[in-house]
């Protein structure tokens, strides 16, 4: 274990989230992308506190594909500074992790 990561990004619309999900799965850069939302995000931007509705993408992939996933997200994403955060998957079902590995095999 330890070769897989989960990446999160948020977008302003469900349509952007779906476009990111489709691109990543079609290009075999992710085995699965779950879209959650709407959610509410509170953050500081240009000195002001903002509170906006967003959609969260939870992306499962391998560590070695992070750079390609990041490039693909940035090519679709409407934000100047999109959230793209990766955390390691430190454990999981052997069956699921085997399936994930098959989906993102180069």
Task: Describe the 3D structure.
The chain has a four-stranded antiparallel β-sheet with strand order 2-3-1-4. It has a single domain, classed as Alpha-Beta Plaits. The chain contains three helices and four strands. It is α+β, with helices and mostly antiparallel strands and 106 residues long. Helix 1 runs antiparallel to helix 2. Strand 2 and strand 3 form a beta hairpin.
Describe the secondary-structure layout.
Elements: E1 4-11, H1 14-26, E2 32-45, E3 48-62, H2 66-76, E4 85-88, H3 94-103
Antiparallel strand pairs: 1-3, 1-4, 2-3
Helix pairs in contact: 1-2
Helicity level: 25-40%
Q: What is the CATH third-level topology name?
A: Alpha-Beta Plaits
Low-confidence stretches: none
* Arithmetic mean pLDDT: 95
Q: Which range does the strand content fall in?
A: 35-45%
Helix segment count?
3
The run of helices and strands is EHEEHEH
Task: From the structure above, extract its key features.
106 residues, alpha+beta, Alpha-Beta Plaits, four-stranded antiparallel β-sheet, 3 helices, elongated
Question: In a nutshell, what does this entry contain?
Answer:
With about 110 residues, the protein is α+β, with helices and mostly antiparallel strands. The chain has a single domain (about 5-105), classed as 2-Layer Sandwich (Alpha-Beta Plaits), CATH 3.30.70. It is built from three helices and four strands; from the N terminus they run βαββαβα.
């Amino acid at each position: 274990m330890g070769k897989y990561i989960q990446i999160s990004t948020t977008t302003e619309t469900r349509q952007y989230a779906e476009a990111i999900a489709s691109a990543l799965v079609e290009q075999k850069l992710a085995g699965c992308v779950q879209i959650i939302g709407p959610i509410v995000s509170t953050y500081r931007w240009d000195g002001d506190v903002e509170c906006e509705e967003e959609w969260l993408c939870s992306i499962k992939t391998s560590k070695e594909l992070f750079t390609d996933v990041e490039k693909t997200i940035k090519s679709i994403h409407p934000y100047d500074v999109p959230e793209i955060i990766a955390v390691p998957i430190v454990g999981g079902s052997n069956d699921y992790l085997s399936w994930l590995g098959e989906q993102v095999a180069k």
